[in-house]
TrEMBL record:
Residues 31-360 form the Leucine-binding protein domain. Residues 1-24 form the signal peptide. Belongs to the leucine-binding protein family. This is ABC transporter substrate-binding protein.
Length: 375
């Protein structure tokens, strides 16, 4: 009898030790979030801000205990702006590194590629930097956006142009985001604003030709929708641009919005933003972002793109806290839907089974001729 009791106690002790070992292993294992960004090439300035903003939130989560005791790891691979490399990177992140979600793709083409690949991989795509309507297609139930679509942004920008008496514009585009360009053209036409469309390729000769044509047109305002390569060219041709461009510029929020607002300091730039203007907003979200950027990353995080990435990772963290264990790609979409109405530092979002676009809010910003942001 004593021997049987001893054996039973031994088995119970072994079971308890094994359970504690499994629990400790689960607590020690990290939850991996993946992203593929152009860390080389003309997209680097944007990618650097995005990575810095995301890291600020991840480091805050880990400094305060992680997700149910588990560390949150953000793994970033460089795609150089190449969609084929992006697709390969996402496969590595999910299949080899165990990423439970993909975040922060940049631009229309990259995000459409990411949406297709993550659908095959069975993980959610959260916070794409694109308002393309195609990302809201019914079959893409794994995609969760934190921003309004292109048409909503274009309408907001055009209303602002009309309100200040602009009736004749030039629209300078480079084909980087075709759907966004078309949304702008449609909104201008619907508002009765005469728009002359100038299309360039991201090459210096093409830019100089476009600037020459722009000078001949003499519009009241210039509306721009340019990708990273074209913005880099524009930064290098500021003298020629100043001679050709009117006193008022306008643009939709884009992965390069910070870069654009730092160009052509003697021009007024009106723009849309899908996050609070970080330098001006007094919302708790913006102040918490500033705190975490200073504590964990540095000034490169403090930008429109950095705040958008910070917000995306904050949504991820909130959903992971609600997800049924183990937190994996299959259960995370349901956890995001369960967030419902959620206020993240004064910035409300709403998700649900039929609601994968968290926000329809568009902010209107202005940068004055002195280079300072006004609102």
């Amino acid at each position: 009898m004593r021997m049987r009791c001893f054996r039973l106690l031994s088995l119970l002790l072994l079971w308890a030790v094994a359970a504690l070992t499994v629990e400790a292993a689960q607590a020690a294992s990290a939850i991996v979030i993946g992203q593929s960004l152009p860390l080389t090439g003309p997209g680097f300035p944007v990618a650097n801000r995005v990575q810095a903003g995301a890291k600020a939130l991840v480091d805050r989560v880990n400094a305060t205990g992680g997700i149910h005791g588990r560390r949150l790891d953000l793994l970033t691979l460089d795609d150089g702006g190449d969609r084929r490399r992006l697709a390969a990177n996402l496969g590595k992140l999910v299949r080899e590194q165990g990423a439970v979600a993909v975040v922060n793709c940049l631009g229309e083409r990259a995000c459409l590629e990411a949406a297709a690949v993550t659908r095959e991989l069975g993980v959610p795509l959260i916070g794409p930097f694109s308002g393309a309507a195609a990302l809201r297609a019914p079959m893409l139930r794994h995609v969760f956006t934190l921003r309004p679509d292109d048409r909503a942004e274009a309408d907001a920008l055009v209303r602002q142009l009309r309100s200040v008496g602009i009736g004749r514009v030039a629209l300078l585009v480079d084909g980087d985001e075709p759907a966004r360009e078309q949304a702008l053209a449609d909104a201008l036409q619907a508002a009765g604003i005469a728009a002359q469309r100038l299309t360039m390729t991201p090459q210096r000769a093409a830019l100089l030709t476009a600037l020459h044509d722009l000078a001949d047109l003499g519009p009241q305002a210039l509306v721009l929708n340019l990708g990273p390569a074209s913005l880099e060219l524009l930064a290098n041709e500021q003298e020629a641009a100043r001679q050709a461009m009117p006193g008022t510029l306008a643009a939709l929020s884009s992965p390069g919005l910070t870069q654009l607002t730092r160009l052509l300091r003697d021009r007024v730039i009106g723009f849309t933003s899908v996050v609070p203007v970080p330098e001006l907003s007094q919302l708790p979200l913006a102040r918490e972002f500033e705190r975490d950027a200073e504590a964990f990353v540095g000034p490169e995080a403090f930008s429109f793109e950095g705040l958008a990435a910070y917000l995306t990772l904050r949504v991820c963290a909130e959903a992971l806290r609600r997800a049924r264990p183990p937190a994996d790609g299959s259960g995370l979409p349901e956890a995001i839907e369960s967030l419902g109405h959620v206020d993240l530092g004064g910035w409300p979002l709403h998700f649900g089974p039929g609601q994968h676009q968290g926000s329809d809010r568009v902010e209107i910003g202005l940068r004055g001729r002195d280079g300072k942001l006004r609102r």
